[in-house]
């Protein structure tokens, strides 16, 4: 089945999904944040078919989330190193991890988040970098960006009216 491309969507979330690709890519990125960098390490961790892993690593490299680096010349072997764009995915992964931790049975949790230095468990929230305020559906809305057209502006107006309890 042909996957739909989101590359022409105006929404940053849709465009981000285009960059990441699919669930395999998210799990590959998860493993990279856990120190894995080589094809065989990813394959062993994920149990994914080699052809799927090859496609996902190529996509993540083409999208700029990984840089492919030669670590052995004969035979040529490469490792996949997170780029700045790839490292910027960390908060997304932590949000997904935290959401999953809250919504699966506690007895099924094999991993918890902790402070690297102290070992104390962490609980995540999304905060505004400027104010430190927690970002919630109740206190957050959209603004029109530079590429917004009339359709986008109307959608934003409907959303704001809905949040304020007004008819749009």
UniProtKB/TrEMBL annotation:
Keyword Magnesium: no
InterPro entries: HTH_HxlR, WH-like_DNA-bd_sf, WH_DNA-bd_sf
Keywords for this protein: DNA-binding, Transcription, Transcription regulation
Protein name: Helix-turn-helix transcriptional regulator
Annotated HTH hxlR-type domain residues: 11-108
Top-level taxon of the source organism: Bacteria
SUPFAM superfamilies registered for this protein in UniProt: Winged helix' DNA-binding domain
A molecular function (GO) term: DNA binding
Record keyword Transcription regulation present: yes
């Amino acid at each position: 089945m042909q996957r739909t491309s989101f590359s022409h969507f105006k929404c940053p979330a849709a465009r981000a999904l285009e960059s990441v690709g699919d669930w395999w890519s998210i799990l590959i990125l998860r493993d990279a944040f856990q120190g894995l960098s080589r094809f065989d390490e990813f394959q062993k961790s994920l149990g994914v078919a080699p052809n799927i892993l090859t496609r996902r690593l190529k996509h993540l490299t083409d999208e700029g989330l990984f840089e492919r680096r030669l670590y052995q010349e004969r035979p040529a072997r490469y490792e996949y190193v997170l780029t700045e764009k790839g490292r910027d995915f960390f908060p997304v992964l932590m949000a997904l991890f935290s959401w999953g931790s809250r919504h699966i049975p506690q007895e099924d949790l094999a991993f918890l988040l902790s402070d690297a230095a102290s070992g104390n468990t962490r609980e995540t929230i999304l905060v505004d970098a400027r104010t430190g305020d927690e970002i919630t559906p109740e206190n957050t809305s959209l603004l029109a960006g530079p590429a917004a057209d009339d359709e986008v502006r109307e959608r934003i107006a409907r959303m704001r009216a809905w949040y304020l309890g007004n008819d749009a």
